[in-house]
Design a protein that fits this description.
By secondary structure, this protein is of the alpha/beta class. It has 2 domains: 2-227 and 443-485, 3-Layer(aba) Sandwich (Rossmann fold); 231-439, 3-Layer(aba) Sandwich (Rossmann fold). 43% of the residues lie in helices and 18% in strands. The chain is built from 16 helices and 16 strands. It has helices at 22-34, 72-91, 102-119, 139-145, 163-166, 172-179, 190-204, 231-240, 245-254, 272-285, 307-327, 344-353, 368-375, 408-420, 423-439, 442-461; strands at residues 2-6, 37-46, 55-60, 63-71, 127-132, 152-155, 184-187, 208-209, 212-215, 218-224, 258-265, 293-300, 335-338, 356-359, 384-388, 401-403. Strands 3-4-2-1-5-6-7-10-9-8 form a 10-stranded mixed sheet, with helices on both faces. It starts with a strand and ends in a 25-residue tail after the last helix. Bound molecules: 6-O-phosphono-beta-D-fructofuranose (F6P). 6-O-phosphono-beta-D-fructofuranose (F6P) binds next to helix 1.
């Protein structure tokens, strides 16, 4: 079996370069070690590229990286249009931000069909294809049209919203029906999975039996596979990077002051405005914390061509400057606000320097920053994680200080409490979280999904019900599989 992993964004994994996006950073080490072929966008567009997809291939660890220039005529409609102005807002429960034209939808479908044609080059009888994320909901259906009979898996890194919100996406029925061409669909949380199954039953009138849906495409298995990190490797990075110039300069600049850190893409789903307002409220309500605690907020610019992101960028810049103007002193800046990215190694050192990690999205599939912050702490003197209860990570990291990101007063109180938490409590909470991280690593996620996907082939070949080993599956039952439409 050879594994082909497909995602819009890929990573070449230069250790000292900034990483964009949780998906690419998370997949890189496991793809490198597994020997898989990783196929994705080159980040460039090309005129006429829609006729003949051509992937450039380079070595990546034990496997290979294949990147394609996407067709210029459809790229905008696909990426900024349908993927990030219809699916992204809907999947993060912001239907008010959905803006997508008919042409955007057609471009999205075109790019999915283009990627399918590009994958013909990697079609071997024993290959297994694992498609990542909301950019490629209909890729599986396009592959089936081209005659792919191999196991096709799909994993959604974002949340899946409730059926009311999903019905705000133009062409939602066609898209979700197309998703059923996948043999296995994985979600981050049980809630996402339940929302998806609820949609299938309500909008498509499909019966679901023990996590298996039958449609004209055959059987689709649906399960929960929470993505993890490599906590021990991340801890090593953190310990090593204390001597990195960026990290040691940060330490020196603190003069005994305590630090909170936030690291996010600049996205409305991350709850950044509410977070800054909570710090503002905290310094108002607890004046003793002025000068003694500050915030380092790293906010990588993202999707700048989309109006909602441009507006947010302006709003945040204004807000940070108002808060700094209100609470700052000649020799003290409450919020250090940076619009730039850092390598994983430097980030690990920055996380370890901060006594409090603030991860307060309004809605997030998992949020790996929360997991990385925990893994980066020293066992002897760990920091405190303040985590939104609406991040997928809250299911596992339930000994973090969980907050409602809409409750500014509550967040202000909780952040103040985090700074004051005694060592014994910090240790207890941190040890419990580290145990959860070690019990669900990125390697286990990767192997668990691929293993379950391969079993879909076994269930197609035989009428026997194969034993189910992946413990994180959402009650799958393997039955007789219907024939695949080609
Ligand atoms: O949350 C899912 C995800 O794929 C993240 O990994 C990533 O941060 C984002 O969506 C995609 O970002 P971009 O548009 O920068 O590729």
């Amino acid at each position: 079996m050879e594994l082909v992993v497909v995602s819009n964004r890929v990573s070449r994994g230069k250790a000292n370069e900034p990483m964009t996006g949780g998906l690419a950073a998370a997949l890189l080490p496991v793809v490198e070690n597994s020997g898989a072929i990783w196929v994705g966008s080159s980040g460039r567009v090309r005129e006429g590229a829609q006729k003949e997809p051509f992937a450039e291939i380079e070595a990546l660890g034990a496997g290979a990286l294949a990147t394609l220039d996407l067709p210029s005529a459809h790229y905008g409609g696909y990426y900024e249009g349908f993927a990030n102005s219809a699916l992204w807002p809907a999947f993060h429960s912001r239907p008010d931000l959905i803006r997508a034209s008919e042409q955007d939808y057609l471009s999205y479908r075109e790019v999915n069909a283009f990627m399918a044609r590009a994958l013909v080059r990697f079609q071997r009888p024993n290959n297994v294809f694992w498609i990542q994320d909301y950019h490629f909901l209909s890729l599986g259906a396009e592959l089936r049209k081209l005659g792919f009979g191999q196991p096709l898996g799909f994993f959604l890194h974002t949340p899946w919203p409730d059926r009311g919100v999903m019905s705000g996406v133009p062409h939602h029925r066609h898209l979700v029906e197309a998703m059923l061409a996948y043999d296995l669909i994985g979600f981050q949380t049980k809630e996402d999975c339940d929302n998806f199954l609820g949609y299938l039953s309500f909008h498509l009138g499909l019966d679901i039996e023990h996590g298996v849906v039958r449609s004209r495409h055959g059987a689709t298995h649906v399960g929960v596979f929470p993505i993890g990190i490599d906590p021990d490797k991340f801890a090593q990075h953190a310990a090593r990077s204390v001597s990195h110039p960026d990290v040691s300069r940060l330490r020196r600049s603190l003069n005994g002051e305590k630090l909170a850190i936030g690291v996010d893409r600049l996205d409305y789903s991350k709850g950044l405005v509410n977070r800054i307002n909570a710090f503002d409220r905290m310094w108002q309500e607890y004046p003793a914390l002025a000068r003694s605690v500050s915030l380092l907020q790293i906010a990588n610019l993202s999707r700048g061509g989309i109006e909602a992101y441009g507006n947010l960028q302006n709003e945040l810049a204004r807000l940070v400057s108002e808060v700094n103007g209100r609470h700052g002193e000649v020799d003290w800046t409450p919020i250090r606000y940076l619009n730039k990215g850092f390598s994983q190694t430097v980030l690990a050192g920055l996380y370890r320097t901060a006594q409090v990690g603030v991860v307060t999205p309004l809605h997030d599939g998992m949020n790996l920053v929360a997991k990385e912050y925990v893994a980066a702490q020293s066992a002897a003197d760990p920091g405190v994680l303040v985590l939104s209860k609406f991040a997928g990570a809250a299911n596992e990291l339930d000994t973090a200080l969980l907050v409602n990101p809409h409750d500014i007063d509550g967040m202000a109180r909780t952040i103040a409490m985090a700074f004051a938490m005694p060592l014994t409590e910090r240790r207890m909470r941190w040890e419990a979280m580290m145990a959860r991280l070690r019990a669900g690593t990125i390697q286990q996620w990767f192997e668990g999904f691929v293993d379950a996907l391969e079993k879909t082939r076994a269930s197609q070949a035989s009428e026997d019900v194969p034993p189910l080993s992946a413990s994180n599956l959402h009650t799958l039952r393997w039955g007789k599989s219907g024939a695949r439409a080609s």
